[in-house]
């Protein structure tokens, strides 16, 4: 018998992205379905690329609880729809005013601001429709998952709240407490909720949910710090978006407040804390450990 071939993290992520993209294709309206423009705009942003980080974390968390693949993939794809909606709106002139996302012109640059707003609205609505689909899993798990997730993408402690705090912290006005809130709410809350979504659908035990939430919160903050560092050091070709915007817009960032080396050490410390939270899962959580390290070593 031939020895098993070890699948690298890069190969694993590529395989998982393909699974998520297949489910996204099933969920999204066809590009030629009337009204055509909105569907083209939605698909433009969803299929522009991306790491599919949140969906992959969802899948792995659900697999730890031996969850069924079909509902996990549906939830994972819905998470990517939510993430893409947030990116479309984040890039609008009224917010970050960016022309490049995932290496492609942003949605409003191609389809106009009005259509981009509607495309984001449509993606969020489609995601919630997919998550509420009858028979996805046991109704109690499903309702809890939707409640948990919508809290993480809204306010007062979720993604919308983080975006508001980020806007109001323009010109470097955020103190250390405000900076921490922005990062945890704008990025960390949704990443933690993505892990919990997969675990909830799979029926994970409460102690496992708690451990995954800690892991998610830690890597969410580490991911945002790494993003801030890449904005300082990366190029448009590497990042797929415009670098240096944080500094030009005087945004509240870890490198801006603490410097590059201190920020790197903080991200590394968060990854160690995140992987420690996975101890109860043993070798089954190896991919999650690898992903935590990848988040601070990536170049895009």
Q: What's the count of strands? A: 2
- Average pLDDT across residues? 91
Strand order of the largest sheet: 1-2
Shape: globular
Top-tier CATH class: Mainly Alpha
**Which band does the percent of strand residues land in?**
under 5%
| Fraction in helix | 55-70%
In CATH, the homologous superfamily goes by the name Farnesyl Diphosphate Synthase
CATH architecture: Orthogonal Bundle
The description of the largest β-sheet is: 2 strands, antiparallel
Beginning-to-end CA distance, first to last residue:
39 Å
Extract low-pLDDT stretches.
Answer: none
Our count of domains comes out at 1
What is the string of SSEs from the N terminus onward? HHHHEEHHHHHHHHHHH
Give me the Rg, rounded: 19 Å
CATH topology: Farnesyl Diphosphate Synthase
Helix count equals 15
The computed structural class is mainly alpha
């Amino acid at each position: 018998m031939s020895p098993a071939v070890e699948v690298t993290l890069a190969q694993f992520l590529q395989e998982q992205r393909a699974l998520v993209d297949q489910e996204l294709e099933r969920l999204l309206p066809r590009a030629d379905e009337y009204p055509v423009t909105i569907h083209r705009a939605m698909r433009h942003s969803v299929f522009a690329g991306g790491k599919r980080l949140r969906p992959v974390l969802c899948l792995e968390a659900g697999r730890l609880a031996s969850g069924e693949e079909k509902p996990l993939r549906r939830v994972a794809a819905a998470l990517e729809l939510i993430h893409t909606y947030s990116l479309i709106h984040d890039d609008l002139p009224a917010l970050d005013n960016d022309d490049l996302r995932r290496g492609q012109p942003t949605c409003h640059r191609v389809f106009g601001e009005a259509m981009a707003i509607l495309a984001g609205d449509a993606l969020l609505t489609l995601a919630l429709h997919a998550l509420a689909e009858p028979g996805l899993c046991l109704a109690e798990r499903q309702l809890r998952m939707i409640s948990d997730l919508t809290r993480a993408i809204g306010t007062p402690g979720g993604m919308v709240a983080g975006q508001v705090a980020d806007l109001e912290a323009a010109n470097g006005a955020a103190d250390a407490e405000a900076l921490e809130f922005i990062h945890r709410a704008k990025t960390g809350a949704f990443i933690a909720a993505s892990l919990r979504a997969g675990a909830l659908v799979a029926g994970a035990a409460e102690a496992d949910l708690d451990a995954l939430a800690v892991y998610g919160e830690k890597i969410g903050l580490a991911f945002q710090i790494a993003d801030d560092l890449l904005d300082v050091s990366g190029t448009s070709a590497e990042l797929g978006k415009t670098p240096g915007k944080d500094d030009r817009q005087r945004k509240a960032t870890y490198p801006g407040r603490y410097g590059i080396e201190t920020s790197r050490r903080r991200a590394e410390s968060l990854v160690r804390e995140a992987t420690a939270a996975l101890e109860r899962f043993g070798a089954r959580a190896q991919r999650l450990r690898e992903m935590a390290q990848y988040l601070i070593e990536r170049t895009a």
